[in-house]
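Please check our next protein.
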Amino acid sequence: MSAETSVPRPRESDVDISDSALFKGMLSEAEFAFAFFDADSRIQRVNDVFSDVVNVPAERMVGRQPVEVLAADLSQIITHAVQAVIETDAPVTEGRVRVRSAEGDTRHWSLSFSPVHDDAGELRAIALVGLDVTESRQTEEALRRSEERYRSLVEAQSQLVWITSPTGAVVEDAPQWRAITGQGLEEYLANGWLEVVHPEERQQTEEAWREALRGRLTDQLGAAALRTARLQGATAMLAEALTVEQVVQVIIDVGRTALAADRSAVALLDTDRAALKLINGEGILEASGATGDEIPLSHSNVMTMAVNSRRPVFAESPESLKAQLLEAGGDEEVLAGFLAHGDERAWVGLPLLAAGRALGALRFSFTRPQKISQEDGVFLEALAGQCALAVERATLFEREHRTAETLQRSLLPDRLPVVKGLVLAQRFRSGSRHVQVGGDWYDAFVLQDGRVAAVVGDVMGKGVKAAAGMGRIRNAMRALALTNPPPAAVLTGLDRVFEATEEEEQVTTLAYMVVEPVTGEGTLALAGHPPPVLVSPQGTAILCDAEPGTPLGWPTSRRQFRFVVPPGHTAVLYSDGLVENRKRGLDAGLAELCSVVTEAPPEVVSSPHMLLDFLVDRMLSGYEQDDDVTALAIHVPPATKSD
């Protein structure tokens, strides 16, 4: 045996790998996976670790090729590597192999394939050595996520506001700071912002902070600085809130932190019903006796008084509340019951006014009497003004966003075809940072020969122009596919259509495949689009390595590739919004997509609908969605005995 192999040379010339007793003795205690393949790629020997990794008994593997006994994705990797060693007579390493164990855990392995020669220099076998690198991979993943969090911290915004007492002690929450640093509320209130400063910079930063406190903060300016910082913080958070739900959450956070309120409520005005509709009332029992989500303006409480009078209502004690409500025509018996059974002792009602028009009201309450100074009143009115602008903007956004999303969905298929031997699923999630219709689209339909065509495309841009382009390309693709379905032919035809109907600066990409039900045999062509991912029943992911091609309309010779979805597997086509955003590049997104697949439970992997939900939720988690997300799954059910 030559020294060109990683397998140790036996000390005695009459010893070889065909000796089963010797083989078992050498490898029974080994912590690595080991296997021998002959020149025909057939498995000759394996150790117990390898058998455990692939979850196949050793006796079932010996004498067979990997494709006959191993999972499709793993057998493809091993067969390709063994063949490469045979052809090149050189070692091959596969550093990214994911395998799901019998217990359902996902393990990461590094596989090395080496040629084994006899004394005459002839290739005798191929040796596989596998090392479990799960822990190192997890460490790398944790480091990568940590780096992404740090990048988010730097890029999120140029200025943040947090509030301390004049002595530097943390006395109020800072939701924006915690959202970026990952600190919990209790952790932040206990240790403050310095807790997240790097240990090497901690002492220097703390000394600079203390010096600033001694030199710049005084008790005389403390109260004014706090109010200014509170209003700045609230304004910044409200500026980022797009929906009414997000605005309400900001208002509640401000009430609990900046005002130290025990309860917060937001109500919007329904002018047709002359009533306030509670958006988030935290289970409050109003002094008017109203207990539902709707409070008629004819009932007297701090919110209806604020809306009716267009002025703030401050009740610093139960006596003050009672006097104001009775003056407004409130029911004394109901009021007495409210004060007797409730624990609230001070109240603030603020009208939400936009150009003098009432939009709703805010309600803050306290379980102790609350002295409200003139300066506090000015601050609260300014806060209410900012909240009103945010509510008006969010209401307009939601209405326009619903209209745009309805338009875009009307351009997509109402339903996917139902085909025996194939399960199709789709997910579309409109981007949250725009109110215009986007250019993402998907389609699936049955061809004349019974095969199924599936496509996901992306017309870059927003608005009616992108939607019109999407409609033209989608209709043209259907017509071409039904006439001449091979993917290369369809893309060639689309290039001609694109040149005739679309502008040169318009960029359109798509992934188009034709698949045979039951067998999963198919062909694929890409036009500048991200590659499909193939998910195995064991929960591993393989990115298609087909040539990506160029966007439609670019001069090129279109090619198609064999793309098989074996029974039990699922192919996922998707738009770039799933894997790419402002903080995550395409390569990092594709790597994360494969990593997320390995984390899916078995019941999710076996269901294309659940799989798409899992992938979309996990891929968008922690990132701000700034583009449409479209995904289409093609699942070939596993063969049954009746088949």
About this structure: Confidence is low (pLDDT under 50) at residues 1-15, 154-158. The longest helix spans residues 374-410. Residues 415-636 form a domain with the Phosphatase 2c; domain 1 fold (CATH 3.60.40.10). The two ends are 48 Å apart (CA to CA).
